[in-house]
Structures are given as C-alpha cells and as structure tokens.
Amino acid sequence: MAYETIIVETRRHVGLITLNRPKALNALCAQLVAELGQALDAFEADDEIGAIVLTGSEKAFAAGADIKEMAGKSFMDAYLADFITDGWERITTCRKPVIAAVAGFALGGGCEVAMMCDFILAADNAKFGQPEITLGIIPGAGGTQRLTRAVGKAKAMEMVLTGRMIDAAEAERAGLVSRVVPLAELVEEAVKVAEKIAGLSRPVVLMAKEAVNAAFETSLSQGIRFERRLFHATFATEDQKEGMAAFIEKRSPTFRNR
Ligand code: HXC
C-alpha cells in the first residue's frame, strides 16, 4: 500500500506507523486520518503483528487537526459528516495494543490521538496541550473526557480552559504518560516494549487490554466481575499451561497464541 502522509514499517512482530507531514507538523488532515485507519486495519489483520507503535517526528507527534482544512467548515459540514468520528477513533477499536511514542508537540487532536492509544511513552521534549479554546472551538476527539480521566479535573480544566501546554515531566507526574525517555531513544524503546508484548500470549494480551479498558466503562463491581471471568478464561488457554510450566521448569516460555 502506498501511503503519502504516513510511513509504515514492520519491525519483527511490531507494526510501526510514523506520521509524516513534516511541513505541517503532522497536522491531522483527512487523508492522514484515512491512511492511519488503513494501516491499523492491515496490522490488525496481520497475524505476524502482536503490537503497534504510533509515532511522529522529533519536533511533533502531531500539532492537531489540520486548521487550514477545518477553518471553512460550517456547522452542517461538521454535523452531517459527524466530524470527528468519521475515522478518527479507529485506534480505539484496535484489539492489539497500540503504544504512542510522543516527541515534540502533541496538541489538540494530536494529544487526543495519543490518548486514544493504550499508553503513551514520552520523549523528554514532549509537550501536551489542548489549545482548541484559543481557536474558538473545544476539543472534539475525546480531549475533555480522556484527559480528565487521565490527569483529573483540576489540571484538565486548566488545560482545556486556557490552552496551557504541559511538558513531559509534568505529564508524567500527572499520570498522562507511562514513562519519559531521552528523545534519541524514544522509538527504539517503544518498539522494544511493543516487542515484549508481541512475544507474550496474543489472546491473553487481548484479554488484559480488554479488562483494563473495562475500568473506564463500568462500575467497580462490574469491572471486577468482568476481570474475574476473563481471568478464569485464561485457564482454558494452552499458553497458561506453557507459561506456568516454563516457570516451574526454570525456562523461557514459548507462547503459541492458543
Ligand atoms: C495546520 C499547522 C498546524 C495545524 C502547525 N501547522 N500546526 N497547519 N494545522 N494544527 C503548520 C503551520 O501553519 C506552519 O506551516 C508549519 O506547520 C510550522 O508551524 P509553525 O507555527 O511555523 O511552527 P512553530 O513556530 O514551531 O510553532 C509550533 C506550534 C504551532 C506551537 C505547534 O504550529 C501551533 O500552535 N500550531 C497549532 C496548534 C493547535 O492549535 N492545535 C489544535 C488544532 S485544533 P506554514 O505553511 O504556515 O509555514 C484541533 C481540534 C481537534 O486539533 C478536534 C478533533 C477533530
């Protein structure tokens, strides 16, 4: 598949997608969003791929939705096309884990795309923000919801009401990112983490992801019940037998995704 706005590579069992509109700081135009969806579809369908890394450039993960493309939209354009659910949320329906490796600016839709991923690894130069309010709009791809769940009301409200950016250290303190790594090591580290995940039992990884995600959609008691049912289900896998046998026999497990 020939893409124009993203670069798609495979590193062993990891799918690596690099947003690639350097002149526009990876602004998320309709073509980029469509191509991202196609690349995710292809990696989801590829049995060799166990996890996906989404990254940008050193200067920008993505500086938001493409303002030049959005500027002339009318209410009716936005409403009838159901902008932004027309493709943007493809990441959230991926069953395989998706890691955002964020360097530079992750602003507006860029921050929202990073938050749609399962977790964010940040380079030490990363900057996160929801500057929509300064353009006369509000976040439209989950920013008011996912940011608030990630960092709490006080910080989310300040960021959404003022557009203030936070740096990588503040993002880590606030729980928005799982870890901060030196810029030069970001992609390599993200691929390493993804390879680790890809080497584990595929069905059990999918169950673990589903269980954590249930925490955002259910009450505690429903979430714990859901977790317990999936936990029980892991005992029906050959990989559970292999994982535990390998531990007892003091060897590395060979998971067969069964
Ligand atoms: C279109 C963008 C862009 C964007 C940057 N560019 N961000 N084009 N949409 N979101 C373009 C600039 O126009 C410029 O192109 C080139 O990228 C380089 O940007 P500069 O501003 O010259 O770079 P710099 O001075 O380093 O400033 C970096 C920046 C700034 C702080 C990130 O570019 C900026 O504030 N960008 C907008 C950030 C933003 O408001 N994002 C939220 C968008 S709304 P030219 O050709 O002019 O030189 C949003 C809503 C999502 O995301 C809702 C769901 C759909």
Concise summary:
The protein is built from 11 helices and 10 strands.
Tally of strands: 10
Bound molecules: hexanoyl-coenzyme A
Q: Taking strands numbered 1, 2, ... along the chain, how are they ordered across the largest sheet?
A: 1-2-3-5-7-10
Rg (CA only): 19 Å
Overall body shape: globular
Tally of DSSP helical segments: 11
Features:
binds hexanoyl-coenzyme A; 6-stranded mixed β-sheet; 43% helix; alpha/beta; 11 helices; 16% strand; 258 residues; single chain
Can you characterise this structure?
- The chain has 258 residues and is of the alpha/beta class.
- Helices cover 43% and strands 16% of the residues.
- It contains 11 helices and 10 strands.
- The protein has helices spanning 30-45, 67-70, 75-80, 109-116, 143-151, 153-162, 168-174, 186-198, 202-214, 220-234, 238-248, and strands at 6-11, 14-19, 51-55, 60-62, 98-102, 105-107, 119-123, 127-129, 166-167, 179-181.
- Strands 1-2-3-5-7-10 form a 6-stranded mixed beta sheet, sandwiched between helices. A 4-stranded mixed beta sheet has the order 4-6-8-9.
- Helix 1 links the parallel strand 2 (14-19) and strand 3.
- Bound molecules: hexanoyl-coenzyme A (HXC).
- The site of hexanoyl-coenzyme A has 20 residues, from helix 2 and strand 6.
- GO terms for molecular function: enoyl-CoA hydratase activity.
- This is Enoyl-CoA hydratase.
- Pfam families: ECH_1 (PF00378).
- Its EC number is 4.2.1.17.
- Keywords: Lyase.
